[in-house]
User: Fold these one by one.
Assistant:
Number 1:
Amino acid sequence: MTTRTQWNNLSKEEIMHLLSATGEEEKQLFGRSAEIKLRQVGNKVYLRGLIELSNICGKDCYYCGIRCSNRKANRYILTHDEVMQAVQSAYRQGFGSVAIQSGEVSSTTFVAYVDTIVRDIKKMTNGEAGITLSCGEQTEETYRRWFESGAERYLLRIETSSGKLYRKLHPDDERHSYTKRRNALDALRKTGYQTGTGVMIGLPFQTVEDLADDLLFMQQFDIDMCGMGPYIEHAHTPLFAYHDQLLPLTERLRLALRMISLLRILMPDINIAATTALQAISQDGREQAITVGANVLMPNITPEKYRKDYFLYENKPLSARSDEEELHYLGQRLKAIGHEIGYFLRGNSLHYRSTAKTL
Ligand code: SAH
Ligand code: SF4
């Protein structure tokens, strides 16, 4: 297959085959995506300082440690001051963008709070810091409000592009509808955001065909950014019941790397994040992802005392180093693999610019 592979026009069957590649074939796949990445987006890695704004969530996704039914989770929401201090410190260190993530809450108070935060981050950084939001499904009006206040990117994972699998991962009710999630992605795109989505890799019941469909879904939706990573079980969630059916963690990591590699080949100029869940499996999981195609890192800048409570899955990496030391260390490790941190760069998706979506 390797010599005849039309890398820029892969069929679903070829994608499925490559998702299972091992040995020499996998090496060729990774080499190809690494080359495409360097040619299309270069060796700079863009930073988004990740602020885990709140673990209060109105939803009950079967895989997630902060689902509303998990009574063991210790709930919090950062104060305005805490957010601003985290942003200011990151901005001084050279982060060109921040990402604000939270459980899904749609109350008017929460929507207004996020809005104030977006405006104040823009004010504090003279409009320079890029802002990504990842606060779940909201109304089109809310998405527009946050966009007009200055958030330019939004990350909403479809989780899986299979409606059938989606149903198995969520309660069967109005709040957890696959169609609603798809419509929310459409609304984000329509509003003018650089729109990002992603999936979990290695879920129970998930097939290689589902994953190939996920990649084709992202291509067809023409996303600007992607954040995808391995599914990692959490003991206090319903999906944990299937943990003995999962691929071993190291294989889940490899599968995630092949997903990233293939997505880079299918969509050469988008932004792809090397997500924290990769690091939860292997200390250098993110660096491996950067090597095969990712170009964005999201170091955690949440005030330290809250980090253990934003516990979506087991083994969440909690560093003993300070954020400054962590960034320095990251820079060194990226250098060792021929990359460099894009300090003070916003790092917009080239794909968004090239397709010039109308605002
Ligand atoms: N509430 C928002 C954003 C926070 S959750 C939302 O759901 O969109 C962010 C992401 O964490 C989810 O999209 C999901 O893909 C991921 N996640 C949740 N539980 C996980 C788990 N057990 N393993 C890996 N990723 C998980
Ligand atoms: Fe809430 Fe997001 Fe977790 Fe679902 S994945 S329970 S919406 S935080």
Number 2:
Amino acid sequence: METDATTTSRALATEAVHAGREDLAGLGLHAVPIDLSTTYPSYDSRQEAARIDEFASTGARPQGPPVYARLDNPTTARFETALARLEGAASAVAFASGMAALSAVLLARASQGLRHVVAVRPLYGCSDHLLTAGLLGTEVTWTDPAGAADAIRADTGLVMVETPANPTLAETDIRALAHSCGAVPLLVDSTFATPVLQRPLEHGARIVLHSATKYLGGHGDVLAGVVACDEEFAGVLRRVRFATGGVLHPLAGYLLLRGLSTLPVRMRAAAGTAAELAGRLTADPRVAAVHYPKLGGAMVAFEVHGDPHRVIAGVRLITPAVSLGSVDTLIQHPASISHRIVAEGDRRSAGVSERLLRMSVGLEDVEDLWDDLDGALSGRSARSGRAAGHGEGRTAAHVPDPSARVSSPAVP
Ligand code: PLP
């Protein structure tokens, strides 16, 4: 949805709470209404035809009711407005997942005859796979940021980077990379940073992508993706979304908007804990290396001297699970899970070693998290059922073990 440029001078924390909701008081509402309609009645077919023609040629949001839910949805549009405002973008377009969002970007560029992508490793495993396998008919050249300019060809439609990158937390200088891209748009996957820590468009990127499944939703209960960009490209993305169907459900749009309102508070709290844990891990002789971004954030990656699988099996409070950005702390072994789909040699050369663990720090008390990590690093043995993986064994493994609990410290 297009943003109202007149309100962009507000602080991010204020926008997080108010953007996309400005009309509510006038409607006599406080909470955001959820519009679950799949279709919208109209007694004037000529007018509907004109609106469909307009959408088909420009991808602009239809004035008035959306005609059909694959064109647009008012609840999701509120989330799009808010996210665009937080990123300082003219527009944002939401999708059913982060991968649907990336797919739409690639299809949009390919539809303009620009099938070649220059990309910097590491990327999230499935993003890497989508490009490497050429599943959408695109072709990729992998490079480091310094080699991007040389890798660009006449048919290059996109340069893509994640910063901080999943899972190594490697950081790229967005401004320098944007400069080497020339006229080719730079897409920054800013999932790990969120607009609280980084606004890539201010540094020359043209497209920002989020797996909104992560920090934007923030509670591990919404799968979503969003692209923030200029209005012209947003129009192309909306046409791709309409034609390919990767729309976001309005209930997810509602949850994402609600998630945005606490994003700055969640990010700051989790980042403080993550920085403290990164410091303790750095000083710990059981840990070989710690990766924590200069930018900050709530992700910590570390390499252990011992067996990383024992750490995963030994956590009690922390949940051993893929994904990130929720209120609770998660840990996973990228070489086995999030980046399993990337060929071993490519994984290794991108810095994803077999000893690397990736932790998404949540909102728990730092001492409780450290106690848990400390026990897991000491090789606390796995509880029965924990390693079973699926079904009842897995459910049982999530029941807290009273003997492993520490007494609760005072909550400030
Ligand atoms: N980008 C990054 C950095 C991710 O970590 C992920 C998922 O983990 C994605 C994109 C894909 O997002 P989704 O899982 O919402 O499709």
